[in-house]
C-alpha cells in the first residue's frame, strides 16, 4: 500500500474526458469528464457511499445523485426518468425505480422466491407508500437523491445519521439521544446494553434511517416517490442457496424491524420540526399508523401462519382423518421448533444439509 505522510492510501483516482458518438448520424455527444475511484480494500457499500457523498459530492455539489449497484443494469431511459420526476416536482427529495430479476428462473425456488418478493415490494409496498409521500426504503441498488435534501450542514443532516455507524464510536452510538430522555433512563435501568442492541440492529438498515431523516429534516418538506417506469434489472446468482438467502434476509429483517420502530417512535419530529402542510402531516399520520399496525402483525406472523395452516387443515381433514391432522400438526411444530433451536444455537451454514426441507415451506408462506 502506498504511503503518504505516514497514512495508507485508501482510494486511487483516475480521470479522463470521454466523448461518445451518437447511434445514427455519426456525430458526437458533448464531452464528459469521468472520474473513476478505485478503493484499496473492499470495506463495504456504506464505506463507498461515504467516499462518494462526503468526498466527491461535497466538492462537486451536484444537483442530483444516482446510486447503482454492481450487477444492476438500468434500462435505456431509467436514469432519465428518475431525474425527470425530481425536475418536475421540486419537493421530491428521493426517488426509487423498479428492480427486476434478470432472466428469472421459475424452476429454481430460491430465484423464483426473490423474483416474487421484488414484484410484491414494487407493486404493493412502494406504490402505496409513494401515494402517501414517504417510502420506507429507497434501495441502494437503484435510486436517486436530490443532494440538497440529504447534504450535511454544520454537522447535521440525513447523511450524518446515515454514516453514523462508520463515523461514530460504539460508545457514541450507545449515547445517541434520538429517544426521549425518560425512555433512555428506563433502558438504563433495565440494562444500558439493550439500547446499544437496538441501535446496532437499527443500523443494519441504514437506508431506512436515511429515508426517515429526509422526511423529518428540520424546516423542510421533502417527500419520496416511486417511479414505476424506471426499471433496472439485477443479477441474482444462480448458485445461491436457501441458506445464503436466509442469512441475507435475516440481516435485512433485523435492520428493517428496528429501523421501523425508530421511525414510528420519532414520528413526532414530522409534526414538530418539518414544514409540511397540516394536510400532508395528517396523511403521514395515517401512514405511520398503518406501519405500526403492520409491525405488530409481523411480530405475530409465525403464530398467524400456524392458525391459517391449522384452520385450513381442519376443514380438510377433521372429519375425514383426524389422526392425519394431528400427525401433520405435530410435524409442523417439530420443524418450526428445530428451526428456532438451530437459529439460537448455531449458524445457518453449520446445518445446511438439514435447512432446506425445514425452511422452504415456511419461507415461501412468509413471502406470500
Give me the secondary-structure topology.
Elements: E1 3-4, E2 7-8, E3 11-18, E4 32-39, H1 45-60, E5 64-68, E6 72-74, H2 78-88, E7 92-101, H3 109-132, E8 142-146, H4 147-150, H5 158-162, H6 164-167, H7 170-173, H8 181-190, H9 192-202, H10 206-215, E9 223-234, H11 242-265, H12 268-273, H13 278-299, H14 301-317, H15 322-345, H16 352-367
Parallel strand pairs: 7-9
Antiparallel strand pairs: 1-2, 3-4, 5-8, 6-9, 7-8
What does this entry show, briefly?
57% of the residues lie in helices and 15% in strands. It is an alpha+beta fold and 368 residues long. It has three domains: 1-41, no CATH class; 59-299, Spore Coat Polysaccharide Biosynthesis Protein SpsA, Chain A, CATH 3.90.550; 300-368, no CATH class.
Share of helical residues = 55-70%
Report Rg.
Answer: 24 Å
Q: Any idea of the CATH topology of the largest domain?
A: Spore Coat Polysaccharide Biosynthesis Protein SpsA, Chain A
Would you count the extended β strands for me? 9
How many helix segments?
16
Amino acid at each position: 500500500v502506498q504511503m503518504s505522510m505516514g497514512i495508507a492510501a485508501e482510494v486511487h483516482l483516475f480521470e479522463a474526458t470521454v466523448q461518445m458518438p451518437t447511434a445514427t448520424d455519426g456525430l458526437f455527444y458533448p464531452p464528459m469528464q469521468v472520474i473513476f475511484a478505485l478503493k484499496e480494500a473492499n470495506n463495504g457499500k456504506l464505506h463507498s457511499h461515504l467516499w462518494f457523498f462526503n468526498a466527491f459530492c461535497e466538492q462537486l455539489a451536484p444537483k442530483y445523485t444516482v446510486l447503482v449497484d454492481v450487477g444492476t443494469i438500468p434500462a435505456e431511459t431509467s436514469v432519465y426518468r428518475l431525474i425527470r420526476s425530481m425536475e418536475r416536482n421540486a419537493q421530491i427529495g428521493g426517488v426509487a425505480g423498479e428492480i427486476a430479476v434478470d432472466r428469472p428462473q421459475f424452476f429454481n425456488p430460491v430465484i423464483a422466491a426473490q423474483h416474487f418478493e421484488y414484484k410484491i415490494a414494487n407493486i404493493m409496498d412502494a406504490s402505496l407508500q409513494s401515494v402517501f409521500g414517504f417510502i420506507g426504503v429507497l434501495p441502494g441498488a437503484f435510486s436517486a437523491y436530490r443532494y440538497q435534501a440529504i447534504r450535511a450542514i454544520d454537522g447535521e443532516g440525513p447523511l450524518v445519521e446515515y454514516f453514523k455507524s462508520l463515523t461514530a464510536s460504539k460508545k457514541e452510538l450507545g449515547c445517541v439521544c434520538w429517544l426521549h430522555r425518560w425512555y433512555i433512563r428506563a433502558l438504563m435501568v433495565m440494562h444500558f446494553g439493550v439500547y446499544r442492541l437496538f441501535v446496532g440492529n437499527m443500523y443494519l438498515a441504514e437506508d431506512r434511517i436515511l429515508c426517515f431523516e429526509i422526511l423529518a429534516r428540520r424546516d423542510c418538506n421533502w417527500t419520496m416517490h416511486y417511479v414505476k417506469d424506471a426499471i433496472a434489472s439485477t443479477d441474482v446468482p444462480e448458485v445461491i442457496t436457501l441458506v445464503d438467502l436466509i442469512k441475507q434476509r435475516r440481516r435485512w429483517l433485523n435492520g428493517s424491524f428496528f429501523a421501523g420502530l425508530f421511525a414510528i417512535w420519532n414520528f413526532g419530529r414530522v409534526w414538530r420540526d418539518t414544514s409540511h402542510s397540516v394536510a400532508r402531516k395528517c396523511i403521514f399520520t395515517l401512514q405511520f399508523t398503518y406501519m405500526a399496525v403492520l409491525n405488530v402483525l409481523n411480530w405475530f406472523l409465525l403464530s398467524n401462519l400456524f392458525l391459517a395452516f391449522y384452520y385450513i387443515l381442519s376443514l380438510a381433514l377433521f372429519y375425514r382423518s383426524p389422526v392425519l391432522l394431528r400427525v401433520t400438526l405435530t410435524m409442523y411444530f417439530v420443524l418450526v421448533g428445530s428451526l428456532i433451536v438451530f437459529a439460537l444455537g448455531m449458524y445457518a451454514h453449520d446445518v445446511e444439509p438439514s435447512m432446506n426441507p425445514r425452511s422452504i415451506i415456511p419461507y415461501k408462506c412468509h413471502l406470500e
